């Protein structure tokens, strides 16, 4: 992998589509970005709660703890679990997806 260019997460990319200036600040002057207001923080907190509920709903899920930029590693680990018969996968964010059954 070429490390000369910074990789960004999906959420940073989407934020950059909405506001180019924010994306620039995020990578070049992060300390100048103001704190989130209470409403925005509440939305983030709700997202974390959804992740916790997903873990409770699918306690047998397999957590694939890779970084957002480790795409190939994430795919390989997901394939490995698929071949072992594990049909659920959840990312480190706590979200979980059901693999479709492609064998029938």
| Helix content percent band | 40-55%
Helix count? 4
Class derived from helix and strand content: mainly alpha
Give the overall shape, derived from the CA principal axes: flat
Low-confidence segments, ≥5 residues, pLDDT <50?
A: 92-97
Oligomer: single chain
Please report the total strand number as a whole number: 3
Quickly describe the structure.
The protein is mainly alpha-helical and 104 residues long. The chain is 49% helix and 10% strand. It has one domain.
Can you give keywords for this protein?
single chain; 104 residues; mainly alpha; three-stranded mixed sheet; 4 helices; 3 strands
What would you note in describing this structure?
- With 104 residues, the chain is mostly helical.
- It has one domain.
- The chain is built from four helices and three strands, in the order H-H-H-E-H-E-E.
- A three-stranded mixed β-sheet has the order 1-2-3.
- The protein is flat.
Task: Lay out the secondary structure.
Layout: H1 10-18, H2 20-28, H3 38-57, E1 62-64, H4 71-83, E2 88-91, E3 96-98
Parallel strand pairs: 1-2
Antiparallel strand pairs: 2-3
Helix pairs in contact: 1-2
């Amino acid at each position: 992998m070429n490390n000369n260019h910074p990789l960004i997460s999906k959420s940073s990319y989407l934020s950059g589509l909405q506001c180019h200036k924010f994306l620039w600040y995020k990578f070049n002057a992060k300390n100048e970005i103001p704190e989130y207001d209470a409403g925005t923080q509440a939305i983030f907190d709700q997202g974390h709660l959804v992740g916790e509920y997903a873990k409770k709903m699918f306690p047998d899920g397999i957590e694939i703890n890779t970084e957002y930029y480790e795409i190939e590693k994430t795919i390989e680990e997901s394939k490995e679990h698929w071949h072992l018969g594990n049909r659920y996968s959840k990312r480190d964010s706590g979200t979980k997806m059901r693999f479709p059954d492609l064998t029938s």
